[in-house]
Design goal:
The chain is built from 15 helices and 18 strands. The chain is α+β, with helices and mostly antiparallel strands. It has 4 domains: 87 residues, Methane Monooxygenase Hydroxylase, Chain G, domain 1; 99 residues, Beta-Lactamase (2-Layer Sandwich), CATH 3.30.450.20; 173 residues, GAF domain (Beta-Lactamase), CATH 3.30.450.40; 150 residues, Alpha-Beta Plaits (2-Layer Sandwich), CATH 3.30.70. A 6-stranded antiparallel β-sheet has the order 8-7-6-11-10-9, with helices on both faces. The longest helix is centred in the N-terminal third of the chain and has 37 residues.
Amino acid sequence: MKADVATEIESLRKQIDGLERLSQYPDQLESALLETCSGVLSILNQLHNGHHNDPQSGDGSVDQQADIQGLLERLERYRQSLEESEVRYQAIVESLVELVCRFTPVGKLTFYNKAFERYFSAFGEIALGVNLTDLIPKDSRSFTNHFTAILHPSLPAADFEYRIQASTGETRWQHWTGLGKFDKNDRLVEIQAVGHDITERKLAELAADQHTRELSALHNATGALLSTLDPQALLGRILDTAISAIPAAQRGTIHLIAQETGQLEMRASVGYTDPRIRRLRMPGSVGYVVRAVQEHNPLLIYDLRSDPSNLTGQLSEGRDVRSVIVAPLLTKGHTLGAISLESTQVGAFNDSDMRMLSSFAATATVALNNARLHEEVQKLAITDSLTGLYNRRGFFELGQREVERSRRFNRALVAIMLDVDRFKFINDLYGHPVGDRVLQVVAKRCAENLRRIDLLGRFGGDEFTLLLPETDIYRARGVAERLRNCVATSPVETDRGLVEVTVSQGIARATSSTPDLDVLIGRADAAMYLAKQAGRNRVEFG
């Protein structure tokens, strides 16, 4: 009996020596201290029983009791040290701005500091024993499950970013570090977690991500928009790219200000099936598109029905639109028009979408200006600067297509060559400014007496060429006579007074053997010289 007790006392002495190494680890020290106290109680119980069973045990028992008394004194010192450590730990934890808590694997709170209590008071009543799942909204309850699922003795600590929504609707982001506490069987018995609010950082990250996406979308859009110089094709591409960049958009339109009327005209649309939408004209005082254009500012409307004037001018297909974003197409202080994206859902768009569309509109405006400049350059290359008609190059580019079409489909086509009679005499008598005025008036009168499908150009000097598709030789003569009469019966008003003007014309019909426009014009030109030789102010056939 004595030997057994002595052995146990020696074992306890070694355990207590080991407590010294655990003084920096309160949780482990507490567990070891409890285990050691249990051993001391066991020995005391053995000594007590041995004393009653063996009254002659004598001094040996006394020595063992003295050893145990010494062990108890050491244990008491460690207990006091543990209490002091716990007080210091409590004071430190309570002073932290970080959120500190301990909870069981099923989520029951066993400890929390004041920062945790203040933070989570917005989510419910805080008390020991409360289950975290009762504090956290249902859609945010992955918090406890996350740590329970991954913490293990081989992975005792883990980090977790977590989103939670308060009862006020405010969304907050947190970062948590969890440390697991395990029993002898490696079962998770408690989790200590330290967290802090990272909402500002997270919002900044989300904003940066959004900005990156916007820049990427704008980069892609720029490439798409600068890949064509055809104005009408460009309008369709602008809308397609904008809708791709802003997924909430279901429909889109582009309105441009008509130079002739000053009104907004819808020039392109996506998502509308009614053909009348494409012909929509909006007066200059109503509608959400007009508003954005007049104010020179982008516009975000969460619900169009909050202001009925926003819907003025819409056709029936557009009346199910509930939310829109509009960005004006601004260039050098004036507005070309506007691009608008629509949705049938209330609140489909946000401020980020509006900023995105505004940036996109700036890129689209540059592309539109480039296309318009290209169109103007192309037009200048084929336009006579004095009369505004096609010049020889422009007339031949378009005219050759008509000749080819006439031959391919066996369609009627007539050419007229028109020459101003005695034009050199007019120039010599009245001066070149009057001569220029005569050419301008003759060009205008010809244009006014032709159809939209007819071609009219200045061939050079005082000669004009006309192509009349789908016109036989007899109707062509009627056109020529009408032109001749219009010019001859109305003198031209000039700074030098009224000037009498007449014209001579030659007509030629395209046939299956007419190889090209040059040959057709040559025949009309020969007929025109016949008219001059026959006395001028007349029409001849070639």
